[in-house]
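Ticket 4471: requesting a sanity check on a complex prediction with adenosine-5'-triphosphate. Repro inputs:
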Amino acid sequence: MSESSDEPTAEPVLAVDSLEKQFGGITAVEDVSFDIQPGSLTGLIGPNGAGKSTTFNCISGTLTPTSGTVHFQGTEITDAPSHVVAEHGLFRTFQIARELEEMTVLENLLLAPPNQLGESLIYAVTPGLRQRVQKQERELRERAWELLERFELEHLAREYAGSLSGGQRKLLELARALMAEPSMVLLDEPLAGVNPTLETQLLEGLHELREEGYTFLLVEHDMNVIMNHCDPIIVMHQGSILTVGTADEIRSNDRVIDAYLGGDR
Amino acid sequence: MTASGFRSRLTGLPDAVYVFGLMAGLYVVFTGLTVLLNFELAGVVNTLRAITYFSAVYAMVVLALNLHWGYTGLFNLGVAGFMAVGVYTMAIVSGPTNPGPAEIPGLGMSLWVGVVAGVVVAGLVGVLASLPALRLEADYLAIVTLALSEIIRLVLNSTLIQEVSVFGVTFGTGGATGLTVQNNPQTPVTAFFQSWPGSAITDMAMAIGINRPTVVEGIGYAIVLGAVVGLLFVFVRRIATSPFGRVLKAIREDQVVAAALGKDTRWFKIIIFGVGCGLMGLAGILWYGSDGYINPLSFRPNITFYVFVALIIGGAGSNTGSIIGGSIFASVLFYLPQFLEQNSTPVLDGIQSVLGGSTATPQTVIDAGGALVGLDLTAFLAYCFANISSLRFIGVGLILIYLMQRRPDGLFGHRIETAASVPLTTGDTDE
Amino acid sequence: MGMNITHDTIAERVREQPTQLFVGLITTLFLADLLLKLQGTTVLLFDTHVLGGSIGLSELFTYILDGLIVGIAVGLAGIGLSMTYSILNFANFAHGEYLTSGAFVGWATAAVVAGGSGVADRLLLQSNPGLELLSTPIALTVGLCMAAISAVGLALLLDRLVYKPMREAEGISLLIASIGVALLVRYTIAFIWQTGRYGVTGSPTKVTILNLVTLTTHELTLLVLGGVSMVGVAIMLEFTKLGTAMRAMADNESLARVSGIPVEQVTRLTWIVGGGLTGIAGYLFVLESGTIAFNFGWINLLLIFSAVILGGIGSVYGAMVGGVLIGLVDKLAQVWIPSDLTRAAVFVVLIAVLLVRPTGLFGGVKTA
Ligand SMILES: Nc1ncnc2c1ncn2[C@@H]1O[C@H](COP(=O)(O)OP(=O)(O)OP(=O)(O)O)[C@@H](O)[C@H]1O
Ligand SMILES: [Mg+2]
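Returned structure tokens:
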């Protein structure tokens, strides 16, 4: 588990280069560069306000970076709007779960898969074509129920997402991203508020998925999770990357410890 | 029975039961009213025709608006304007090229070409309007669409394009005078009832005492409208229960999430704005076109607010609710006051026979207040009848405030109408 | 080399701000056309009339003066709308009704105070009381005060009954409720005063200033009172705690709440100041036009919205400047288009502002 980070590697699935984001006068992210290898579960840590979520927002097109580039599977997606980024197979979850509150849990899940036939108005309303839409929806329905089972949300399938608890929302958010079968998911604190048993299951699930070929970039404040499950680990501090390394390397890095203990340098 | 108990009992029945049950209830109430007022059969039937007609036209516009506000969360206050675009386009395209003197010629196409043109042009104007919709917050969108609707009305009202000639073809809007719609959706229905086999129906109706052919033709038109509402319902339901409708809902809930899930929200908004506005154009054609005469005064923003109130009564987001809200609004809040005003003399006589007092209408509110203080309720009511259109608006305003404070979901908005084309059951949790 | 630099910057500007440039071009074109018209020059291109024409200087002066008068009234009416929009966070579609009700109460009171037979008829404005600044100054002053007081009363009453129970609701719910309020108030006025249009003023004296412009005493009153009220409010908000508290609330309500600003009290004061100004504006609208009808506030609502949005929501100065600009557009548009379309021109400007610069001219400056 610890040898991969300095190995000569294959083409990175995600390549971020000199990313910078300013809000008015504040520089939230500065000169951030990293590569993510396919099939990895990379950790991204840093104290509050380090710029992790902002980095996610810039990669996923939710925000436009001030400068720098982002490549996904060899394609430049720097200024692409977020739906285009998702169409390329790069999905993200939100730190503060953003459920579609007045839609049921199932509707939330079924929304995610890309390129559904029925997203065309013509297909949705024309009798013959609509049957093809229905066929596709039946297949998606099966996958949705499988995911619900995996995330223990079956009993809530028909409830409005708005009525879910904080932890359940996090689960739904993750399930929804997986529903799209993306190549890569950016996870912004997906485990915050999830109970320990389920957390363990979820992490095992993430590893299984990783072995199937999914790639994950995980933001998490729980050091145990990061140290035991992520490789490599990227450490951010005050908008910049402090270091990148394996769990052991991070653990023994003084600057990381300073950043966490000292706060402002 | 409490309102919530009533509501929970309401859920669980098939939707058609509500719609037909409501219409049946309205028919019973209005038949009772007309019988009390000693209407002859033709009058009774004509009253039922009127509530059917108004319910149908309102249901159509409300269904269209539900696509915008109920489904996508787009606050479109331009309903009146889009209806105007639809019906004016239809009137101009299918107006005769050489009408009577002092009339403004049209392009001389057939009615059907006119209807399609009206729907398409209204839809295109909607697409244009959606370009700001893509960038603006809900309240700004409301102001922009209201302004657009007023621009449309002011342009129709102005002398600018009252009558113009382009490449030798003369046509126009008629300005403030309005426009006669010779070739309108009622025309083919009327023609049907005037020649065989339709004339046989007219004759039969005459034989049983419905002694006015216009009433029969009107009923025919109301039935056609009912069928159009049915088709429209199927159409919007298909939109609603499809992945397309799911994306619309997602845009309503949180556009950022919809986009993060790979949906091109701009595109969906443009499409639905166009479709909804096209349907508003259709409603404008079937509603105002059938009067045979249109003028810009009909398209003031008040009509938009009516449609909104109807949607909120029914429950934004529910298609069945849209039809129910449209019918309730049209019959009870819109038509009933008008009906009472038209029949105020016999109604007041009736009230006088019970309460005594005077039926002479007080000239001012102060006189009316004096009558009330003097316990002459009849005179006070006479003043109210004379001002019933103001009272109607007051009532609509109060209802709107009440709904927003206490019941923002209306009658059906709390229901979960799942946006998927198949039931979302699975093998082991089948219901 | 210097040439080169300017060239570069212009090209850059075009690339970066195409819309601003477009707006600039259009404005320049209109101004150029206006100058040509004043000169009486017509520019023909392939025998078609492209620019110029003719217009008299005095005609132009009249338009500008009219625009200024309308603009001051609209600006004054806009301040209250702008304040509630930024502080309570919703577009108040009932704002026009504060104008109308203030005006009705004010003018009915003035008619009664002016005296004469038939108090009831005077209250209901059944016959023209012929009020005029120089002959019935006291009645007009009392009316003005009543207009302000009644509009404040109405604003507070409606806030208590309608908006207060909805404080937690989203802006759009409040907007819809305000449409209900608008219908309720407008047609209650119609129920009481009926739907006619009533004359209330006599013919005011004309005054000529510096041999340049001629205007009536009523128009002059509107300009002076409107201007003074605006400046007064601006100063008040700039230099009092209330102004600071309002700015804080407009910025971030929950933050204002936790930092100890008495949010409910500020809200009430907002309605009081905004309502009072709006009542005065309604009264002055009628003073200038000479007639009153139950729907004049509603008819002018979009005009007021245009002014507020053009100026920048939340900015008092913005409302003033926006009001004057909108008034000028409304009147000056007659130079180019038929007078029955000038309102449409105003709304086109409104839409253009929302597209090009939704924060308005003074947006982000957050002056009070
Ligand atoms: N929309 C915004 N406008 C202005 N500043 C912002 C915005 N979003 C983030 N910031 C600032 O950028 C910095 C980085 O924020 P970010 O949310 O990326 O941190 P984070 O690493 O995700 O922190 P946390 O662990 O608390 O989630 C912070 O100082 C924050 O205040
Ligand atoms: Mg974060």
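Notes from triage: The first helix of chain B runs from residue 3 to 10. Leaving this open until the requester confirms.
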